[in-house]
């Protein structure tokens, strides 16, 4: 069945792969982004997927953006909370700004987006919420107290909300990626990649954005109605929970 899907941060990286995969399933897809107009324009030129710009940390902007998408494509059936940032620093050097920026985008953004689609999903008795967490929310990571807190928060949020959505036909799940082959990874020196990162991953390679997208496509499908409150760990065996 064709559904309306909204992917936050859907113009590049993992989000772009998710948006493309959902479109390939026949869904009507909207991809949002924060400010990189050039990337968004290139993404639309390549895929034909419409993009929308707003900051997920801004509740009123989420309300307005989601209303616009409902007008353009129809009410949102599938929400993928993918937009996320890092603001790394060892805790003794972490500034309140670094802490708050991470919380505002990665955790408040998830609230702002989900809260704005929830009522309509409840009324229509169908919904799929998938939030992209991280292995670092499951196991912690040096210099990421802020990021790990948000990504662990996604998992608690999901388990609570899954209970509330269950009788309304809404499933709420998490995909927790490990190291994924995105632009961010390309900046890591080859020596660090080969001697530090890859040895930690039992399958011996980075994950691909498309592999995260396949997990999301499954969780977003009509067939996945019995899977809720779950975390799919997609990390090449690096952390088994
Ligand atoms: P990228 O940095 O490649 O892309 C981030 C996307 O999110 C962009 O479209 C960006 O928009 C958008 N975005 C960022 N902040 C906001 C905001 N405040 N409001 C709206 N949109 C925003 O991300 P990745 O593909 O690397 O990561 C995607 C998700 O996966 C994140 O949640 C990340 O934490 C998680 N993850 C990534 C891993 C990895 O190895 N890459 C590993 C584990 C988890 P713009 O282009 O305009 O800046």
From TrEMBL:
InterPro entries: Acetoacetyl-CoA_reductase, KR_dom, NAD(P)-bd_dom_sf, Sc_DH/Rdtase_CS, SDR, SDR_fam. GO terms for molecular function: 3-oxoacyl-[acyl-carrier-protein] reductase (NADPH) activity; acetoacetyl-CoA reductase activity. Residues 3-183 form the Ketoreductase domain. Keywords: Oxidoreductase. Coiled coil: none annotated. GO terms for cellular component: cytoplasm. Its EC number is 1.1.1.100. It comes from the Bacteria. One of its GO terms (biological process) is poly-hydroxybutyrate biosynthetic process. Transmembrane segments: none annotated. PANTHER family: 3-OXOACYL-(ACYL-CARRIER-PROTEIN) REDUCTASE, 3-OXOACYL-[ACYL-CARRIER-PROTEIN] REDUCTASE FABG. NCBIfam families: AcAcCoA_reduct (TIGR01829), PRK12824.1 (NF009464), PRK12826.1-2 (NF009466). Belongs to the short-chain dehydrogenases/reductases (SDR) family. This is 3-oxoacyl-[acyl-carrier-protein] reductase FabG.
